Amino acid sequence: MNENSFGSFWEHLEELRIVLINIAWIIIAGVLLSFIFHDSNARFLQKPLNISSGGIQTVEISHKRTLNSSDENLIWQLPFGAEQKSLFKAVLKDPNHQIYMIFPEGYIDWETAQQPLLLLSPMEGLSTAFKLSLWMGILGTSPLWLYLIFKFIAPALHRREKLLVFPFFLLSFIFILLGLTFAYCVTLPLANQYLFNFNDQLGINRWSLAFYMDYTTLLLLSNALAFEIFAIILLLVHYRLLKAYQMKSKRRHVIVAAFILGAILTPPDIISQLLLALPLILLYEMTIIYSYLRDWMGVFYRREVGLSERS
Prior knowledge:
By secondary structure, the protein is of the alpha+beta class. The chain has helices at about 5-35, 40-45, 125-140, 140-155, 160-200, 210-240, 245-250, 250-265, 270-310, and strands at about 50-55, 55, 60-65, 75, 85-95, 100-115, 115-120, 205-210. A hairpin with a 2-residue loop joins strand 1 (about 50-55) and strand 2. The radius of gyration is 27 Å and the shape is globular.
């Protein structure tokens, strides 16, 4: 190793150190921002618990009254997520922040929907909020730190390789969003319904906040990871590195792998495993169809070019 290459190595190492520090700061900022809104994030992830079918109602409505028993006017803010039902000798001063003025002997009746999630230790709420903020901070800032990684490796890539990286990142981001959306809108509500009914036959459903958030985060991330795998497969098909006949020959293996992946990445219940495995199989079949269409369009294009050259 000559002196120039040795110096270049340390320069690249210093650039990598700066990139990693910047990534760390971006993630820390994302985590702190997520922690500021940890209550909203937790309520958002608890929405799939709002099950109301078959006599099941997991939402508990709490009715409360705030009374001004003093001789002076009271400035009072409605808690986040609560709904004002009635008031007496009180006026709304700030609609944006739900701030009221309650006159002496006045009151406000309000209610809030609370999920029956238990806190089993003094630190459970804080630790759960931090873990949730950590995951949201990493995922929320992913476009920024992925861009820094791409900017660092870009000088070592050829022009064609650079053109492939952008579609990969874009398609990966789209499929991650699809996986998260599918898990939130389909997998979680159905899995919660199934597990609630199953547990109801054995005992009283009283779920812990920490366990529920861990379970929800696992389902969200597993769906995002599974959908990301098919983003890679779709790109391989698009650039003709993977053919339809190759995918058809491996169909049985993929079906088995999808169910194994569903068993590994989801909680140990049949519904969650099926709700992850079946979309993966459907995506695989759609990718095969896309491969056929891509090949057919390529043949059609070559024929058109050949006819135009002959004429």
